[in-house]
Amino acid sequence: MRTVCLNCLTEFTYDREHNRWYTVIRQRNSGHAKQIETYFDKLNLRCPRGCELDPVTLDHPTKVIGFVGESASSKSHLIVSMIHSMMNDPNLASRYSFIVSPKSASLWTQLEARLLDRRALDATGPRRMSMDMTQRSDGITVQAQRQTQGHVWAGLEQRKPILVTAYSLHSARAVNLAFIDVAGEDIADGAVAARVSPHLTVADFLWFVVPSTLNKQYLALMREHADADDQESLTNAVEHSQTVGRTTLMIDQIAKLWRAANSFPIDRQIEPPRVHVSTIIAKTDLLSLIPLPEVNMVAPPANWADSPVSANGAGNSYDPAQIMHRGEITRGLVRRLFPAVDSALSIHFPWNMYFPVSAVGCGKRGDGTYPVFKPYGAADPVVYMLDMIEDLRVRA
User: In a 10 Å sphere around its CB, with 0-12 CB exposed, 13-18 middle and 19+ buried, how is residue 310 labelled?
Assistant: First the structure.
């Protein structure tokens, strides 16, 4: 069993036969890891470096899931929307059970309540450091864990994950899913990225969050076809400020950070199973304002926010083959709207998957509220991700 201390990022494997924990040391080229036997007191709930551990990380393998995007990409809303869909989607409920870690429950309840009340999560703000903790104004990634003096990460700004345990009803196996929110603005500088986002170096899944409004010519076209409600959202300059140039830089810097941290050759493409990389095209509801044939297969209908809940849950395919098919259609649309983004992803992450998602299902009003909370396509990324996790499969 592999787990990871979500504070200092020390990786562990558990030898069930000998009842021993081993510290993992990654080798060059991300090859097989050396293992050093580690004395580990499970009752003490601290890793060898002195970090306080969440007890659930010792019961099941932990998968680190990093969401990378700028403040305006809506990634904070996306994380909450995906976890909400995991817990409420009837199709997923027939296959899995999802339980939020007690240590994440308070933060999760607060964030979910805001979206259910149709209020936007606060935008990313500056982080302030004190001796023991850092804070961000929206609260989604507050790191409030005390560290022992001389700790390897002491004094560094870190982001606190939301931890959810996924149980497979079919295999009776479970994994922990650690959702980490990373601001893309931090990634433009590699030194800053390493300081505030060290979790990305041990991530099992990387999700780039790219808003559908990157291409400003198409953004102008959206504004021409928008009704009054969409006009209010589309005229928000901050909400749609992310550009193609900053997005390609973000992708490139993430790849370089990951390669450096894992001693991975510059001429070798990053591929599964070491890390699964996908891109979510966020704010997909706005694509319905563009008169392109691919949009009908990718975006919700123009009246999505007014219509009753669809028969298949909330715009999800669920079937892996259909998810792949819609992903390829989305790839074609990305190559048409902002081809430089697909090229940047293809250079480093040629196995990248695309998912069209609208975290809320409609645009944000000027007062920071939404007409409805009706996510579109938020469960399909979860279906794909869980299908990739070998620890959830039936043992041979």
Answer: middle
